[in-house]
């Protein structure tokens, strides 16, 4: 769970759009795609570790993973949601 005060100031580093916490259904979808080997991040690396949480960009196109309660707000680590399959 991301601190609500931190969430208010976090934005996408690429577009500066606000982000919100991903709901459980989306996290299940992302983790299922990761388990099936069908997820690469924007840097082109395969994602093999499930995400604990995620921050979704306002336009619903990008998810920034949260691992061990730390949001990974790096463009190359982002997951493009329309490419989950």
Can you describe this structure?
The structure is a single chain. With 85 residues, the protein is of the alpha+beta class. It has one domain (4-83). It has 2 helices and 5 strands. The protein has helices spanning 4-9, 24-35, and strands at residues 19-21, 53-57, 62-67, 70-71, 79-80. Strands 1, 2, 3, 4 and 5 form a 5-stranded antiparallel beta sheet that branches. The longest helix is centred in the middle third of the chain and has 12 residues, at 24-35. The N and C termini lie far apart (27 Å). The mean pLDDT is 94.
Which descriptors would you attach to this protein?
single chain; five-stranded antiparallel beta sheet; 2 helices; 21% strand
Total tally of structural domains: 1
**Beta-strand fraction estimate:** 15-25%
Largest sheet: 5 strands, antiparallel
Round the mean pLDDT to the nearest integer and report it. 94
Q: Roughly how many Å is the radius of gyration?
A: 12 Å
Number of helices: 2
Low-confidence stretches: none
Element-level helix/strand string: HEHEEEE
Separation, N- and C-terminal Cα atoms: 27 Å
* SS-derived structural category: alpha+beta
Tell me the number of strands: 5
Quaternary state of the chains: single chain
Name the shape in a single word.
globular
Helix content: 10-25%
Lay out the secondary structure:
Blueprint (H helix, E strand, L loop, with lengths): L3 H6 L9 E3 L2 H12 L17 E5 L4 E6 L2 E2 L7 E2 L5
